[in-house]
Amino acid sequence: xxxxxxxxxxxxxxxxxxxxxxxxxxxxxxxxxxxxxxxxxxxxxxxxxxxxxxxxxxxxxxxxxxxxxxxxxxxxxxxxxxxxxxxxxxxxxxxxxxxxxxxxxxxxxxxxxxxxxxxxxxxxxxxxxxxxxxxxxxxxxxxxxxxxxxxxxxxxxxxxxxxxxxxxxxxxxxxxxxxxxxxxxxxxxxxxxxxxxxxxxxxxxxxxxxxxxxxxxxxxxxxxxxxxxxxxxxxxxxxxxxxxxxxxxxxxxxxxxxxxxxxxxxxxxxxxxxxxxxxxxxxxxxxxxxxxxxxxxxxxxxxxxxxxxxxxxxxxxxxxxxxxxxxxxxxxxxxxxxxxxxxxxxxxxxxxxxxxxxxxxxxxxxxxxxxxxxxxxxxxxxxxxxxxxxxxxxxxxxxxxxxxxxxxxxxxxxxxxxxxxxxxxxxxxxxxxxxxxxxxxxxxxxxxxxxxxxxxxxxxxxxxxxxxxxxxxxxxxxxxxxxxxxxxxxxxxxxxxxxxxxxxxxxxxxxxxxxxxxxxxxxxxxxxxxxxxxxxxxxxxxxxxxxxx
Length: 549
Description:
Layout: E1 6-11, E2 27-38, E3 43-57, E4 66-78, E5 81-82, E6 87-88, E7 99-101, E8 109-113, E9 120-124, E10 128-141, E11 153-166, E12 173-175, E13 184-187, E14 194-196, E15 202-204, E16 212-215, E17 235-237, E18 248-251, H1 257-264, H2 269-276, E19 289-293, E20 302-305, H3 329-338, E21 344-345, H4 346-354, E22 372-374, E23 379-380, E24 388-389, E25 398-400, H5 421-424, E26 440-443, H6 448-451, E27 478-480, E28 486-488, H7 491-495, E29 507-510, E30 545-547
Parallel strand pairs: 1-11, 21-26, 22-25
Antiparallel strand pairs: 2-3, 3-10, 4-5, 4-6, 4-9, 4-11, 7-10, 8-9, 11-18, 12-14, 13-16, 15-17, 18-30, 19-20, 23-24, 26-29, 27-28
């Protein structure tokens, strides 16, 4: 008689990054269950239905597609083994182990596995566009690798994040745009853009031919904190540092408040305190994440959305779809580690915006133009899935949220049915809000801690007590000793003179946020790249990437 892993509770988690009749970008998972257990090989399958709108694949330029990054959190709640903590499921690394039901599906999917099984990327196999529907997706869970016994009772959450494929091998791409009056990259000391032609080691500074220089000393737009190289002093950016030349996947949207809430609800009580600061969110800046049920007896709190502050949680207008702000950089790193993603580098940021083989021009924004409209007026359907600005550009200016104290807008808000790339505020590859709304947390090339980054992905697990990212050679990451005290995980931080107080050394911001001036939103602007942002900054959010397998 076969032994069975049983479902004590099936938890459905629908991560809705942005949805409406006009925008149609929501990704939904439902009808979850377990099926097909093999108690000899110690695997079973997570089964669910998956759909997301505005899906595409195009062979012509930009020759890319969008995808769903799917991963699973589980908790053992009964049987011969129990735990009170959520853990990250290890999925099969063989693509043919993952299946779907053709009946009820409208696309043929490709299942892209990753080396350590943190999740699976699912995208269209054939060219097409519109809503993608997959029926009875089954992802193989190698539960034996997670130390789970055959008779355990399990509750789980299937998570999905929309991603965009940024192709490699399409030729060089430019960093810097040649503008004056803005701190940015340049080729040697020429003031012109530099072409990134490979992932090989790169000379930073020194003024030699082929080096990546910086233009840091121009009027009020100098770097807040200088790079550790300049025209007279060179350092090496190692080959292992991700430069954006090779292919990777980038989150289509910034992390939403629904996503961050679900993240908090899989943490322990002590981890929640570090990642949410108790209740630091402020509805005055459009963050409605609150504690619905406080922590009692060491049990985790339950977080929920309540943007309208009426005490009724998770209503349709409670801000689930708004980009999550008030995140410091440690929060961003923790979220990305937990999701099996990684932080992007500032070179990957420019590639994601500008595209390969595209000639840059001065002062361009993520949509490839210099005309911009700030959306600070009345918000229609505030906090709902169909939230819209009252004054969107529908002509030739890019839409963005900036230079306001009113907080961020819904993820993907400017992409309506009649949008162009410009009016949607989309990048060359179809990534949304890379200029404005909330800043993008990026790894800087301008410090030892940043250059030590090798692009290792998160493993889904955080430090036990502090709930911090624990991936070695991530900028600023610290591990924990046996007694729970903080210690540096990477000797490069010490060699760089950063010490134990600079937890976010090597990180900075690109793309600008809600309070920033328009010039900070430009693709090439590096003003905040070496800035350790104040905790809970209202214009700072989170977006991650994953290297293409």
